[in-house]
Structures are given as structure tokens and as C-alpha cells.
Write a structure and sequence with these properties.
Length: 366
């Protein structure tokens, strides 16, 4: 069913599960029991300020969705009470590695990867966050491959964090994983795409790059070189333009860069992990320049369309795992490289970093 494109009113946000509008309502609050049952919560009974804050931190609000179902779902209260969430959508074909990349992004944030940028992290809901860590972060750290993203009717809401910027402003940051197959059903995703704050396009080298050294891994994966990613095309064709360009913070990532670790200029950037450094727009521009030239040389023009279409777009090399999986395991363990770069870039474009560093963040834009 097509969704309305009416702009959100003050206090409204999009539910991360059904993408319908919702606002904070203390008459619809619940708490989750040890048996994972949702029980009504009356905040008027919470007279102790410290206890009230602690209970609401772990509370939920029911959302009826579009009204077609009798079964509500439940949104964490902190997601509704810390301003408008900043939404980050991962875009790419199934198998492109975007789910592993997203998981490693969150893992590095948990490990303090944003601390050097003056950004502090807290979970939106402690229990759900712990589940994400157990099922995805810990699995990767044990050298096990994540399961493929299943098809969904809506954008898959993966995780949400509360990020506090250098200015002290707290903002929920929600991560969504949009698979290529799901994006073919654009009507159910239209409203979400219209309200998204940042897009991270993930290029699969096996699909994009005409390089002989990739022929064997491409054959093993039963893939062929293509002229573009249909997921990219679907998103870019449906989003509105401003002055001919897409005005949403964007990053284009050459993923699985470990497959290219001996190729210049990829070798240079993988050798410099850029971990725990101050945001440097100059280096970001250099990496964008090198990644653009690399794709221009080895891929069809369609793979650069996000850059050509977006007013603000940076380009990156990243490896979520450091190697390929065999029999659903990474035989040499998992070692991510440069996975935070794309996220740091879009956070800067969205005003989450210090103001004196954001002005040059769009220097590589189309």
C-alpha cells in the first residue's frame, strides 16, 4: 500500500518498525517483563524522579501501525523523547556485505570509535542492544558469518543508538538495512526514503569491477559483472531533487576492499586504518578522489551514479571482515578496516560533529 508523503508535524517521528507517524504518548506506555511480555505502565505512579527516569529508560510505547492490524508493536521510549531521529540507510544488493559493514560500524562505536570526534554513545534500549551485540557483534567476533538479510515488506530496522555530539545535543541514530529485492517494492518504502537523513551505498567489487584477479572469487560466488546496482537506481530515481541534485548526506563505499588489498590506491588506504584520529576533511577528500578514480577506471559509469546525483557525497574504501568466509566462517578471524569512515562522514554532513569540521565534509560532492 502506498504511503502518504505529507511532511511530519512537530513532535512526530516515523516508527522504525512500520514507518507510520508516531509521537510520545504516556497513555500508551508498557514495560517488558522477564518473560518478554509487555505489561501496562502508568507513569503517574512513578513519583520518585530517579526511579521514574530509570524505568522510562527501559520502557516502550505501543504503536498501532497503519491501523490494519490488531497487534501493536513497541517502540523504545528514548527513541521518542530525544528529538527527531537521524536515520541512516544502508543501500546495496544482497550479498554486497552491507549487513557485515553495518554490524562492524556499530561494534566500533561500542568500542569507543567515535570518542575522538567528541561523540558519546548510549543504547536506546539496553535489552535490545544487548541482543544485537549477542546475535551480530559477538557472532562476527567469533569469526562466524552473519545470516543473509531476509526479504521484508518495509525497511529493516537494525539498531538505534543515542549519540551525544560535541555540543551536548542527544539524538537517536537509527540504522536501516535496505536489500535490493526489498527496494523493488518502492511503494511500501517511499515514505521512509523521503524522510531519510543519510544514505550509505555499498559497492560489491565482484559485481562492479572488471578486474581479472576477481574472476575466481566471482566464479565461486556465482556472480557476473553488472553495469550498476538496481538498488542504487531505485533509490536515486524515487528521491526528490533540489536544483537537480539529491540533497541528502551520502557516502559511496567500495566494500570487501580486502579483495583489492594489493591494488593501488586501495593498498594505501587499507594500510592507514584511520582509527582514533581527528576528523580530517583533507584526507576525506583525498580518499574520495582516489575511490572515484578507481571506480571510474574499473567499473561501469552506473556505479558512480550516487556520487553524480548527490549534492553531498564522499567515497570510501572499507573491509568489514578482512577476508572471505568459508563454510560460514572466517578462517583467519575477522579484522575490519576503515568501517567508521563512511559513518563519520555522514554524521559530519548532518551536523553531529564539531561545527569547524563540517564545512569541508561535502568537498567531494558531485
Amino acid at each position: 500500500m502506498a504511503q502518504s508523503t505529507t511532511p511530519l508535524e512537530p513532535g512526530q517521528i516515523l516508527c522504525p518498525y512500520c514507518l507510520e507517524t508516531v509521537r510520545y504518548d504516556e497513555g500508551r506506555l508498557f514495560r517488558r517483563s522477564e518473560t518478554l511480555q509487555y505489561e501496562r505502565l502508568d507513569p503517574s505512579e512513578l513519583t520518585n524522579p530517579l526511579r521514574r527516569a530509570d524505568i522510562l529508560r527501559a520502557a516502550f510505547q505501543s504503536c498501532a501501525g497503519d491501523g490494519t492490524s490488531d497487534e501493536p508493536h513497541f517502540v523504545p521510549v528514548p527513541y521518542l523523547t530525544n528529538g527527531r531521529p537521524l536515520t541512516v540507510a544502508m543501500i546495496g544488493a544482497s550479498g554486497s556485505g552491507k549487513s557485515h559493514l553495518l554490524t562492524q560500524m556499530v561494534a566500533e562505536i561500542i568500542d569507543g570509535g567515535l570518542d575522538p570526534y567528541g561523540v558519546r554513545m548510549q543504547s536506546v534500549n539496553p535489552a535490545d542492544h544487548s541482543q544485537f551485540v549477542r546475535e551480530r557483534v559477538a557472532r562476527l567476533r567469533q569469526g562466524r558469518q552473519l545470516e543473509a538479510t531476509g526479504q521484508t515488506a518495509f525497511a529493516e530496522f537494525v539498531e538505534a543508538l543515542l549519540l551525544t555530539g560535541p555540543d551536548g545535543q542527544v539524538r537517536p541514530v537509527a540504522f536501516f538495512d535496505l536489500g535490493g529485492e526489498d527496494l523493488l517494492r518502492t511503494d511500501s518504502l517511499l515514505r521512509f526514503l523521503l524522510g531519510v537523513d543519510a544514505l550509505v551505498f555499498v559497492v560489491d567489487p565482484l559485481l562492479a569491477l572488471r578486474m581479472p584477479q576477481l574472476d575466481e572469487p566471482r566464479k565461486q560466488a556465482q556472480l557476473d559483472v553488472t553495469g550498476n546496482d538496481p538498488a542504487f537506481e531505485t533509490v536515486l530515481d524515487r528521491l526528490p531533487r533540489s536544483g537537480g541534485y539529491l540533497d541528502v548526506a551520502s557516502a559511496l563505499v567500495v566494500g570487501k576492499a580486502d579483495l583489492l588489498r594489493f591494488e593501488p590506491p586501495v593498498d594505501r588506504w587499507l594500510a592507514d586504518d584511520a582509527s582514533n584520529v581527528v576528523f580530517d576533511p583533507r584526507l576525506l577528500q583525498e580518499e574520495s578522489r582516489d575511490a572515484y578514480a578507481f571506480l571510474r577506471r574499473h567499473a561501469a559509469p552506473g556505479w558512480l551514479r550516487p556520487f553524480d546525483s548527490a549534492l553531498r557525497c564522499t567515497l570510501h574504501f572499507a573491509s568489514a571482515t578482512g577476508g572471505s568466509a568459508r563454510d560460514s566462517r572466517f578462517p583467519h578471524g575477522v579484522r575490519s578496516r576503515r568501517v567508521l569512515g563512511p559513518l563519520v562522514s555522514v554524521l559530519a554532513m548532518c551536523g553531529m560533529l564539531a561545527k569547524d569540521t563540517t564545512a569541508s565534509s561535502s568537498a567531494a560532492g558531485g
